[in-house]
Specification:
Low-confidence stretches: none
CATH class: Alpha Beta
Number of strands: 9
CATH topology: Rossmann fold
Mean pLDDT: 96
Number of domains: 1
Structural class: alpha/beta
Shape: globular
Number of helices: 7
Oligomer: single chain
CATH architecture: 3-Layer(aba) Sandwich
């Protein structure tokens, strides 16, 4: 009998589908009790299979508001735009009825645009039903980077949003604060690869949040979705 090797790609696809099912179930649960639900997702290449799987889930998407945990301050036509990524892969199929709220506007910089965006984000249904976080190899999540001059503010402020600059990334960014992301009913961390598994394991070995900002979310329930 011919057998087929189970590859890392296969594992990531299964992971994406499992995460999509969990997120959809959470949204359905909250929509029974409230008029609208807020879903916060992360960008980058890792969540694309998850976005595609979630877009096929059946629920009352017209009552769901979707936004990003953070965004690069670039135009939607840029290859670096997470807005473009979400619109292409998540706001589609069943989920095409969802209302997407981008974290960019026409201001010249995130510092100039943040107050207007914060007022818009404040109109969403809070606390968010679901936050799906990612994590970088340096332990950052959203745009809370260890080397960012705005990290301490991002970890401590009660504001929803902040403008972010970091020597380790080329573009200026806007990000939800740690408190805004923490103030959600459910938190999922979606990561892949051995490197990020090691980083996440290291995060348990200390309590310096500024060294590994993902630690800001490890004092509460955090569902880890990991595949090789």
């Amino acid at each position: 009998m011919k057998t087929t090797d189970y590859t890392a790609s296969d594992a990531r696809e299964v992971l994406a589908c499992s995460l999509a099912e969990a997120v959809a179930a959470a949204l359905r649960e909250d929509l029974v009790e409230q008029a609208r639900a807020t879903l916060i997702v992360s960008g980058g290449s890792t969540p694309v299979p998850f976005f595609k799987a979630l877009s096929r889930q059946h629920l009352d998407w017209a009552r769901v508001d979707v936004t990003l945990a953070d965004e690069r301050w670039v135009g939607e036509d840029s290859q670096d735009s997470n807005t473009r990524l979400v619109k292409q892969h998540l706001i589609a199929q069943e989920a095409s009825a969802a209302v997407f709220h981008p974290l960019v506007n026409q201001a010249d910089s995130p510092e100039e645009g943040v107050s207007t965006l914060e007022a818009q984000m404040a109109q969403l249904s809070w606390p968010a039903s679901v936050v799906v976080l990612g994590m970088g190899g340096d332990g950052h999540t959203a745009s809370l980077f260890p080397d960012s001059p705005q990290l301490a503010y991002g970890l401590e402020t009660d504001k929803l949003l902040l403008a972010v600059r970091s020597p380790s990334v080329p573009q200026a960014r806007i990000s939800f604060s740690a408190s805004a992301l923490s103030n959600a009913r459910r938190h999922f961390l979606h990561v892949t690869g051995d490197e990020k598994r090691s980083v996440f394991a290291d995060a348990f070995g200390g309590n310096d949040v500024k060294a590994l900002p993902i630690r800001a979310f490890m004092s509460q329930a955090l569902s880890l979705y990991w595949a090789p």
